[in-house]
Amino acid sequence: MIERQLWHPVVASLQVRDAPLACTLLGEPLVLWREPRHEGEAGRVHAWADRCPHRGAQLSLGRVLLHVRGARLECPYHGWQLAGDEAAAQDAPVSVGRCVHVPADPAFVPPVGHSATVFEAQERYGLVWVRLSPPGPELPGPLNEVPLFEQGSDRAWRQVLCGPYGLQTSAPRLVENFLDLSHFGFVHEGWLGERSHAQVQTGQVLEQAEGLIASDCRAWQPRAYAGASACGTEGAWVAYRYAVPHPFAAVLRKDAALGDPVSNAIALFIRPDTDQSCTAWFAMATLGDSASDEALRAFQDAVFAQDRPVVESQMPKRLPIGRERPASEVHSPADRMSGAYRRYLSRLGISLGVT
Ligand code: FES
Ligand SMILES: [Fe+2]
User: Fold this and answer.
1) Which of 51, 59, 75, 101 best tests ligand 1's pocket when mutated (most atoms within 8 Å of CB)?
2) What's the mean pLDDT when you consider all of the chain?
3) What is the domain extent for residue 87?
4) Is the minimum distance from the CB of 78 to ligand 1 under 6 angstroms?
5) Atom 4, ligand 1: which residue's CA is nearest?
6) CA of 10 to the centre of ligand 1 (A)
């Protein structure tokens, strides 16, 4: 399954604190745990299969220990200790996930096979990302750079994470909704669009192997600029740029323009839970917006609450990407970006959440 070779967000970084945390990715139960802080730095996050190699107990019910050699995860059942990053220990470094102590027989030296299943994990954009299998050659890299969302990448840009939003539809349906300008005047009337100004410009769509880019997309907005601090009373055409760097992620960018001092970028990151359900976050990066973080989150929550009933109503919940005959959905020229997105999923061989 090609989806196992992609990086996926699983939880917000801030959620992984002192205690192990259970979560599920693509049907795989995981335990996430963080090594204790070291010299002021947040400790490394680990993502392992949530199953003790001894008798199968759930490791997420255990606890994190700080041993002199390094951080360990202790199983809740017989207290076996599984190593975090003990490579720094000078004598006999052990691999991550390996059992290093069996309390019932302290003299026993567990062999290599006495190890938890370890997955790759990294923290980006305020989220913990996990990859279940090593990458296949034809897939995009870990996650294409979205530099504005990197903490501290550019101090002028403020980062705000919104979500998680659990949704009863597939990840591709949600990405397509995010790329769709022509619903603004109806679903977000008075907020992001006007029904009397429903016409959109779909701009240029560039289809590259590593993702999609759409520039010069324009929609009419009822207020001079959109955002929690929208204050203008006159409508205007607003230009957007979209990128799809990953099958289940998309980024929208709007630059400051005449009469509109705010630049912002919003990245949609999705954890595909099942074929027909997912969990989403919006990572926002804004420049020149005086609204508080709370106001930005409240705005995003309100916009998402407008999308939710419509997106959850779409049938089938899996996105038709053109493989079925006869085709189950029809298109208009305004759907150019959605057509490109469907072809992109098909090209990558995505099977989760599509039909
Ligand atoms: S099941 Fe984990 S220590 Fe026995
Ligand atoms: Fe929407």
Assistant:
1) 75
2) 89
3) 2-131
4) yes
5) 78
6) 25
Per the structure, the count of domains in the chain is: 2
Whether 43 maps to a domain, the answer reads yes
Q: Is residue 71 part of a domain?
A: yes
Return all residues near 148 (Cβ < 8 A) that are at least 6 apart. Answer: 154, 157, 265, 285
Residue 35: both structure tokens together:
């090594």
Residue 142 resides in a domain: no
Q: Which is nearest to 30 in space by CA: 55, 60, 3, 74?
A: 60
Q: How far apart are CA 298 and CA 127, in angstroms?
A: 20
Record the tokens describing residue 26, joined without a space: 């693509």
Is any atom of ligand 1 closer than 6 Å to the C-beta of 243?
no
- Which of 31, 51, 55 gets mutated to test ligand 1 (max ligand atoms within 8 A of its CB)? 55
* Atom 3 in ligand 1: residue holding the nearest Cα: 78
Same domain, 153 and 297: yes
The answer to whether residue 179 scores a pLDDT higher than 90 is yes
Centroid of ligand 2 to alpha carbon of 173 (angstroms): 12
Tokens 């980024």, residue? 251
**At 180, which CATH number?**
3.90.380.10
Instruction: State the pTM of this model.
Output: 0.92
pLDDT digits (tens, 9 = 90+) for 93-122: 789 999 999 999 999 999 999 999 999 999
Both 223 and 328 in one domain: the answer is yes
